[in-house]
Amino acid sequence: MSHTEFLNSDPFNAARDAAAYIAEETGVDTHDVALVLGSGWGDAAHLIGQTTATLSADEVPGFSSPSVVGHVGTIRSVLTKDGKRALVLGARTHYYEGKGVRAVVHGVRTAAAAGCKTLVLTNGCGGLNEDWNPGTPVLISDHINLTATSPLEGATFVDLTDLYSARIRALAREVDPSLDEGVYAQFTGPHYETPAEVQYAKHIGASLVGMSTALEAIAGRHAGMEVFGISLVTNLAAGISPVPLSHEEVLEAGEAAGPRISKLLAEIIAKL
Ligand code: 8IG
Fold first, then answer.
1. 90 CB under 6 A from ligand 1?
2. Which of 25, 194, 207, 220 has its CA 20 to 30 A from that of 142?
């Protein structure tokens, strides 16, 4: 059976299998916190602690290699200074890859099955607030799921009030009081929004636009984890700035943000 067939035959059983494989291969029975690294965040986990094991995602049951360059296909076990075990998922599957929602949330369900009580979701996204220069990290306070789908199937009525932990957002602001908050709208992509779609997102209350996170957050809440989300605004969303941003500028801003977001992540995780 292929990884995809295995995953689709029973997603929760596949997550338990993946967690058992991770426990076996890392030698760590229970992980405490899971970290999903989005674009721009690939190097941000290095200050969290010491990597004790690195697995290639495609060897873990139900996972497949990511198709986007810049999304590292590894799963790492990291030991923090205060003894927490972090599971760092560098292998996000995006909805636009067409592998289905079960594949999108498999990493999150695996993290829950591996024992993680906290889920840290990071992403790179477009910003609607002109004050957010490329390279600005923004806390996610809530989301709008524009994918027209859900990771939950059947009559699974999960409450999403306060989905993004107010407690952990407060911890993040203790680390960096200048952090702003925003509402993240998940579009399906893979195309970016038109300026009209960005205005629509603004009218319905979004201030961040991207192609991930919301579906994973829902699966995380369903699995009983405390969810924290943080975006790196890598560009102003289409039509927000009168001046088109140069790709070079965006990359530079992202690079410049590296040390700040690395330190931020490590300090937030230390406070959990
Ligand atoms: I990086 O402007 C990044 N990812 N949907 N829109 C959407 N996704 C993104 C964007 C953006 N920038």
1. no
2. 194
CA distances from 268 to 29, 47, 238 (A): 23, 11, 31
Is 193 an active-site residue? Answer: yes
Whole-number pLDDT of residue 65: 66
Query: Each residue of 126-175: pLDDT tens digit?
Result: 999 999 999 999 999 999 999 999 999 999 999 999 999 999 999 999 99
Q: Whose CA is closest to atom 3 on ligand 1?
A: 125
Mean pLDDT of all residues in 233-260: 85
Q: Please tell me the distance between residue 192's alpha carbon and the centre of ligand 1 in angstroms.
A: 6
C-beta of 125 in contact with ligand 1 (< 6 A):
yes
Instruction: Answer whether residue 72 shows pLDDT above 60.
Output: no
- Choosing among 3.40.50.2000, 3.30.40.10, 3.40.50.1580, 1.10.10.10, the CATH entry for 3-271 is 3.40.50.1580
Rounded to whole angstroms, the Cα distance separating 190 from 209 reads: 12
Q: Which of 184, 234, 255 to mutate to test the pocket of ligand 1 (most atoms within 8 A of CB)?
A: 234
Asked whether 234 lines ligand 1 (CB < 6 A), one says yes
User: Which residue out of 174, 193, 226, 267 is catalytically annotated?
Assistant: 193
